[in-house]
Amino acid sequence: MNSGDHMHGMGGPPPSNGTTMMHRRHMMMHMTFFWGKNAEILFDGWPGYDNLGMYILALVVVFLLALTVEGLSHCKFLRGTTAAPAVVGMVQTALYTVRIGLGYLVMLALMSFNVGVFLVAVLGHGIGFFFFGSGAFNKQTAAAAVSGKGSDLPPVNC
Question: Is there a contact between 58 and 43 (Cβ–Cβ < 8 Å)?
Answer without folding.
Answer: no
